[in-house]
Every structure is written in structure tokens, then in C-alpha cells.
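This entry is listed below:
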Amino acid sequence: MRFLLVEDSDDIGHAVSARLSDQGHAIDWVTTLADADAVLAASDVDLIVLDIMLPDGDGRDFLARHRARADTTPVLVLTARSQVSDRVSVLDLGADDYLTKPFDLDELDARCRALIRRSGGTAQEHFSADNLHYEPQSARLQIGDSTRTLRNRENRLLEVFFRSHGRVLSKAQLLDRLFSLDADVSENTIEVYVGRLRQHLEGSGVRIETVRGAGYRLSDR
């Protein structure tokens, strides 16, 4: 998944981006609202983690503009303000959830997972198809009696495919989901990861199909 983190604190920014990156997510970490606007203009993201007090403005103004454009990307607000009225104000502006600083990274993980599930219209923590059972959170893929543990980006790519089951995804779209904007990668990288996933999926009831000139899709065999 592709996350945009808008946070000017070095300590929090490094901790959050390292935690989410370790799980295989692509993280674009910026410290100003101007840079956040630039990222959103250049690429789609799956989730925005937004601080309120930033060097060039108030995150609530950014949130209001974001929602005024009818953008439904989930937004998790980070705030140092603990009063109920402050939390209510960001929810009324269109935030999907909030965390009060200081926060535990495990709770951040859980809230991000919940927002991604909600935005995808599903409460699923796992996916099943024929003899296959897949759990993105634990990166476990079970096919029949064989259980395999996926590497981080393999896991995230397979999760993207399952959440878009039957839809064609271009290489550019898949790159957006796996890598940040400053990552030096080409579309050939996607071919490598797709090749690895195809090996993992051998013997299952699903396959990753190449749609010539368009990309890939996960389909039933």
C-alpha cells in the first residue's frame, strides 16, 4: 500500500515511516503541506497520516481542502490536542480517525489496517479461494497443506491483487502501491515480483494473468 505521511517531527516521522516501510508499504514522508499537495498531484495514495501543526499551515485546512475536492482517500490525523472538542473538529472536517500523541506504534498499525479495510469496502483480515488461504497481516499463504511466508513487498503486492480481484492493474499502478516517489525503480521490478508470486501461487485456485498491453489481474484458474 502507498501511504503519505505529513509530519514535521523528525522523531515521529522516522519512527512511523520506518515501522510502515518494514511492513512493505511505500511511504512518502513530507514535512510541509505544500509538499503533501505535490505528492497528491503526482500520484494516488491509499492512506494519508496527517499531523495538525505544520511549518506552513494547519493540517485542518489541508484536510478541508482535501475533502472539498471530493477525495475519499482515508485520513488518519495525528494530534497533540487531547480535548474532546479538538478531536470532534477534525472528524467533522472529514478525518476518518485520529491518534493523540504520544501514541503506540502497534495502535497506529491497527488503525491503518482498519482504515484500509474500510476504504476497500471489506472487513476482511484474510482471503480464501479454493484451496488457498491468505493472511496479509501475518504474510502467511497456505495452499493445501503447504504454508509459505511471503517477503514484505511480495506480501503487499499479493494483498493489492486480492483487494482488486478481477481488475486489471497496470505496472505503473502497482509501482505506485509498492514504492515511494523517490525510489529508483523501473516497471521491470514489478515483473520480478509478479514472477515470484506466480511461483508462490502454483497449485492454488488463482493465478496472476498478464493482460497484454494493460497489466496484470488476479483471476480464478
The first strand starts at residue 2 and ends at 6.
